[in-house]
Amino acid sequence: MEFLLAITIGVLYAAAFYLLLRRGVVRIILGIALLSQAVNLLIFTAGGLREGGVPFIAEGQTALAATSADPLPQALILTAIVISFGVLAFTLAMVHRADQATGTDDVDDLKGTDQT
Amino acid sequence: MNSVILATVSRLLTGVLLVFSVFLLLRGHNLPGGGFSGGLVAASAFVLFAFANGFPAARSMLFFTPHVIIGCGLVVAIVAGLAGNLAGLPFLTGLWDKTPLPVIGKLGTPLLFDLGVYFAVLGVTTLIVFSLGEDGEEEE
Amino acid sequence: MNALTLAILTPLVTAVLCLFSLRSLTLQRFFGVAGMAVLLGVALRLMAEVGDGTIEVVRFGNWPAPFGIVLVADLLAGIMVLVSAIIGLAVAIYSIADVDARRVRFGYYAFLHFMMFGVCGAFLTGDIFNLFVWFEVMLISSFVLMSLGGEKPQMEGAVKYVTLNLISSSFFLAACGILYGQTGTLNMADLALTAREMRPELLTMTAMLFLVAFGLKAAIFPLFFWLPASYHTPPVAVSAIFAGLLTKVGVYALVRVFTLIFTEDVLFTHGLLLVLAGFTMVTGVLGAMVQFDFRRLLSFHIISQIGYMVLGLALFTPLAIAGTVFYLFHHIVVKANLFLISGITARYGGSFDLKKLGGFYAATPLLALLFFIPAMSLGGIPPLSGFFAKFAVVKAGLAGDTMFGGWATVLAVVALAVGLLTLFSMTKIWAEVFWKPAPEGHAPHPGNVPPAERFLLLAPVAALAALTLAIGFFPQYFFDFAARSAEQLLQPEIYINAVLGGTN
Questions:
Q1: Does B95 touch chain C (CB under 8 A)?
Q2: Cβ of A10 under 8 Å from any chain C Cβ?
Q3: Domain boundaries, given as residue ranges, for chain A
Q4: Cβ contacts (< 8 Å) between B85 and chain C: which residues?
């Protein structure tokens, strides 16, 4: 299972970086979205895969059952998803404005601020 | 967008989605759900309404501006955090009422905090979608 | 409630108050300035509490230490919060005259305080994933501040700024995940303990991920390209607070993890930092030499100055780390001030282009004096603050007690040469803007700006210049703080005991 996930993460990273290197701004945004998914899977895999129950303490117990999954990577991923949702929504709005202001979505044409 | 079917259905669906969002909010502490998903569902209710009936109608249905909703949400969350300080414990310490209630489980400041998150998420999402959508309408 | 919690709550509450008063310009400006003033008071109280070397810890939610999120204030964090509050107040006052009504109505002050919320949180947190969250709070607010107004160059700069910062965030997040997978903890004090048992090559690999993530935010070589492409595009008040604070949060994070967690394979990790510091200093200052836009020129100098701070961290001796801390607060004050001055000259002379400015010495000798102080301080002229900052770092490099032997000397010489070039850049601005006669049709007109606004623009600049002088004339007092915080940083046990002490 780790192997399969590792391959998936690799493919996601490769696709994300390919998109990040394109010239269209929208493709770059898609690349960022893919990148955050790749990172989420990475956290999930690095946190240790375990076949087991949901990490809830059962009724009448005081501790987690030994077989249950580690809840912390899930909490991290959840937080990361929330943040990337907010960031992505903002980025899309910003790119829309940038497109209106500059009239282009080609990063090669966004050179105005790099020239002396 | 002018679709009679969508407009009719959206009136029904908006209500259902809002009730569902409150349900998600209340069960969130121990089961899947919570302030964030609840807030997103509520925001999607308003977005659906906006698609069917136009953004001005959705804005007036929201009653407050998204900014005010974000502010209210943050105030509720801060108050929930400060409750711990009033009890002489660190910021954000959860305080619980001992008596369980049906459906909700137990009342406590984490629920209040979740309520704050709910409104903050609702405000932020509608703010972004409305400003994007109204931008699009101006262009047409 | 203790000062630690208040330092985080004050900007948040202020931001909410600004959100509620979006329609009233006066109210927003009042809250914007008053909130920063309160934050300054809180920061002073925090400094009074941690100034004697105690480390203050708050366990959020009352969860015990390695499991819950802790906020930790040691001397370094206290110093950083204090300087941030000073700059915040200066910029908030300056903004009244500089940021237009449209941007204020759109929530400029609210986002400024949200950003301060993220900055203070980043300085005070003791949990590595929580640090990521604070970074994001700070970044999202800075994205909005950067693109607020939506002018063409601003949007071009914002696209680059946002994209590269998001990539750095994803590196940061991946690094957190891998670190957690290896150690099973996210608490920085606990990480410092468990990291010692990690396989060294894995630890170093994780360290590199953090280096890329924080290096991008701190704009070290070769990850700095977004900075000069974006920092000169937003309103001056925004670029001043960005220039002063944001990259320094990255440096702070580097200092934190490379003194607390990644201290096992020092020869490799800090050796790499040493090399990067050298390149950062040189590329920054060389980039600045060819610039003729006031703010772009200053942006390149941020990069070269970041090099000095990283150099101090890389040398990893008490004196060098003290130099880094001293450099941090000296540089925040001076750099923000120079950006604020560039705004005033643009208001008087109508341009940021050095070639179109001139005759300012004749027109406003006071402004010339106010520029002269931070500029010479940045160039490292005694007895101003920059001299002592550079002196500490260079002396640490020449001392010969570092682990890099001759290389430390080489880097110290590079630092001296870069200092000379910095001085050259500053004299270039001086000659172009203040000394040479005004070019045809571009004479400065201080009268263009109403007297009340002129006062609001000049007062923060004068206050920051006075602070620079104070640091320069009483360096022993400030250096004492820096030296003691370096002592704390180099003895992680103090930090670890303070955070975990109550639980095991």
A1: no
A2: no
A3: 2-51+68-103
A4: 1, 5
Ramachandran angles phi, psi of C442, nearest 5°: -125, 30
A39 touches chain C (CB under 8 A): yes
Classify residue C75: in a domain, yes or no: no
In B, minimum Cα distance to A81 occurs at: B36
Q: Nearest Cα to C300, choosing from C116, C467, C426?
A: C426
- Is some CB atom of chain C closer than 8 A to the CB atom of B67? yes
Q: What is the pLDDT along chain C (504 residues), one digit of tens a residue?
A: 788 899 999 999 999 999 999 888 999 999 999 999 999 999 999 999 998 888 989 888 888 878 888 999 999 999 999 999 999 999 999 999 999 888 998 889 999 999 999 999 999 999 999 999 999 999 999 999 998 888 888 888 898 899 999 999 999 999 999 999 888 899 999 999 998 888 888 899 999 999 999 999 999 988 998 999 899 999 999 999 999 999 999 999 999 999 999 988 888 999 999 999 999 999 999 999 888 899 999 999 999 999 999 999 999 999 999 999 999 999 999 999 999 999 999 998 888 888 888 888 988 899 999 999 999 999 988 889 999 999 999 999 998 788 888 889 999 999 999 999 999 999 999 999 998 888 888 888 888 888 899 999 999 999 999 999 999 999 998 999 999 999 999 998 989 998 887 544
So what's the ipTM on this one? 0.93
Q: What is the CATH number of domain A2-51+68-103?
A: 1.10.287
Size of interface A-B (CB pairs under 8 A): 14
In a domain, C90, yes or no: no
A90 with B135: Cβ contact below 8 A: no
Closest to C238 (Cα-Cα) out of C100, C81, C136 = C100
Tell me the C-alpha distance between B67 and B71, whole Å.
6
The answer to whether C70 and C60 have CB atoms below 8 angstroms apart is yes
Query: Does the CB of C53 have a partner CB in chain A at under 8 Å?
Result: no
Beta carbons of C78 and C441 less than 8 angstroms apart = no
What are the structure tokens assigned to C343, written together?
């705004």
Which segments of C350-384 does DSSP mark as H helices, in order? 360-363, 365-379
Among all residues of chain A, which has the CA nearest to that of B131?
Answer: A93
Distance CA C101, CA B138 (A): 23
- Cβ distance of B30 and A56 shorter than 8 Å: yes
User: How many domains does chain C divide into?
Assistant: 1
Q: Which residue range forms the structural domain that includes residue C372?
A: 265-495
Running DSSP on this structure, what letter comes out for residue A63?
S
Query: A93, B125: Cβ pair inside 8 Å?
Result: no
Query: Does residue C427 form part of some domain?
Result: yes
Domain membership flag for residue C446: yes
Minimal CA separation from C42 to chain A, in Å:
29
Show residues of chain A in contact with B128, CB under 8 Å: 89-90, 93
**Chain C residue closest in CA terms to A95:** C159
